[in-house]
Design brief:
The chain is mainly beta. It has two helices and 17 strands. Keywords: Cell outer membrane, Ion transport, Membrane, Porin, Signal, Transmembrane, Transmembrane beta strand, Transport.
Length: 358
């Protein structure tokens, strides 16, 4: 018994010493709401679901001061379904983020692991709905990376802030034997913020080639998005323009068209326009956006999304929300109204729920 107590005391002393040198914090978010989806061939569905406005998560992050302006850092972020307790991101333990790196106050930060693509962060920056709720811009704007918004096996560099200018570049290894280009992807972004104006340009390139048929890679998926916001205090304006070229450059969130039951792959040549507004007043916030997809292929499968939302802050950590969005599909297009983590099953959806950050 005495040996056990002594062992626990030693372990406690070691743990205390380790955390005294490294700043480690635990954080998270719970988002649960009622969702009603309409318009799909299978009929309407009403459900209680998790991750409507933002994916529910549990994360650990930390930094260690190495001296001379240099620090080590890490993030491990798990995604889960608060309505069922199941793991998110296909069952990955830390499917949202998992990376480690070094940061310098003078030279920027280098991180390695599973991370967000610069182009996706550009979408999140300009979208009034923050790529969540029924009004999620990614219902129409393409997601990049590993079919979502992240890159596995990636190295990312983020620059310091130079008088309002920032930049980042990321490279994801394909890790296919015999081919350094197969499944390879890379992206970059530059931004500028000064007073009420903020601008960001993001780009992503995904190699579609395979080791067996590298010629497919001549149609790499290329996504470019320019976004800007301007804060008028009484309201913030959002504006974005995107260009999507190549195979898989504008994939649907559903592999099967929920209106026809047929397989679908998305446009290989399209442009996107987003116009939105955020209106805050006290504890209230009103969100609205319009998105147009212009399919420039012979199929001409255009789409328009209209979205409206309302958020009420009960405190700095707890919010109530309700949002609605409608998509008008043209010529058999299969765009659907989903949320932060779900693709949706119809051309319109309503949600109402609560989220709490800790």
């Amino acid at each position: 018994m005495k040996k056990s107590v002594l062992a626990l005391a030693v372990l406690g002393a070691i743990s205390t010493g380790a955390f005294a040198q490294t700043n480690v914090s635990v954080y998270g978010l719970l988002d649960v709401g009622i969702v009603q989806e309409r318009g799909g061939a299978a009929g309407s569905v009403t459900k209680l679901t998790s991750g409507v406005g933002a994916g529910s998560r549990l994360g650990f992050k930390g930094t260690e001061d190495l001296g001379g302006g240099l620090s080590a850092l890490f993030v491990l972020e798990n995604g889960y379904q608060a309505d069922t307790g199941a793991l998110g991101q296909g069952g990955l333990m830390f499917g949202r983020q998992a990376f480690v790196g070094l940061g310098s106050t003078n030279f920027g930060t280098v991180t390695l692991g599973r991370q967000y693509t610069p182009q996706y962060l550009t979408v999140a920056f300009v979208d009034p709905f923050g790529t969540g709720f029924a009004g999620n811009a990614n219902n129409i704007l393409p997601q990049t990376g590993n079919a979502t918004s992240r890159m596995d096996n990636s190295v990312k560099y983020v620059s310091p802030n130079f008088s309002g200018f920032t930049g980042e570049v990321a490279y994801g290894f394909g890790e296919v034997a015999g081919s350094t280009s197969t499944a390879r992807q890379y992206g970059l972004a530059v931004g500028y913020a000064n007073g009420p104006l903020a601008v960001r340009l993001g780009y992503h390139n995904l190699n579609n080639g395979t080791a067996a048929a590298p010629a497919i890679g001549t149609e790499n998926a290329k996504n470019t998005l320019l976004g800007a916001t301007y804060d008028f205090k009484v309201a913030k304006a959002h504006l974005a323009y995107g260009v999507d070229k190549g195979l898989n450059s504008s994939k649907y969130r559903n592999a099967v068209n929920p209106f026809t039951g047929l397989a679908q792959s998305g446009s290989t040549d399209s442009t996107d326009v987003l116009v939105g507004v955020t209106v805050p007043f006290g504890a209230h916030k009103v969100l609205a956006s319009y998105i147009h997809k212009n399919d420039k292929t012979a199929n001409n499968m255009d789409a328009n999304q209209y979205a409206l939302g309302y958020i009420y802050s009960l405190s700095k950590r707890t919010e109530l929300y309700t949002t609605y969005a409608k998509i008008s599909n043209k010529n058999g297009a299969g765009y659907t109204v989903g949320g932060a983590i779900e693709a949706g099953s119809g051309d319109q959806a309503f949600n109402a729920g609560i989220r709490h950050a800790f």
